[in-house]
Amino acid sequence: MLNRRKEPAPKGQNHTGRVLIAFGVFINLYMLLSFFFGEMGLLNASKVRRVYAQVQTEIQSLQLENTRLSKQIEALKFDSKTIERHAREQLGLVKEGELVFEFFETESY
Question: Residue 78, exposed/middle/buried by CB under 10 A (0-12, 13-18, 19+)?
């Protein structure tokens, strides 16, 4: 029969087990912290998703503005009414025979 009495473990063997347990705890703690707070962690991932949504919204806005400006460019190239309106408003041009009335405010003392 085998002797099942507990005998004190040799000094080196008891110390090695504690070091391995401490090392395992340290590795698990490091992995847990990395999962939440690391470069590719859970908190950073939610921030990246938020920024991605903002960028997508800005892209849609810029695409709409780009479409509007493209239509405006086409109108300024080929639509005579748009060209005339632009010449009158921006350049101050008038057709031959039209009268121009200018109104000035006078300073009253």
Answer: exposed
Residue 76 · residue 82 · CB < 8 Å: yes
Q: Which amino acid is at 107?
A: E
pLDDT at res. 44 = 85
**Per-residue confidence (pLDDT) for residue 16, from 0 to 100:** 84
The verdict on residue 30 lying in a domain is yes
Give the total number of structural domains in the chain.
1
Sequence-separated contacts (24+) of 89-98 with Cβ below 8 Å:
none
Over residues 5-61, the pLDDT tens digits come to 666 655 555 678 889 999 999 999 999 988 888 888 888 888 899 999 999 999 999
In a domain, 3, yes or no: no
Question: Residue 103 falls within a domain, yes or no?
Answer: no
Angle between helices 42-78 and 11-37 (to 10 degrees): 20
pTM value?
A: 0.52
CA distance 99 to 30: 83
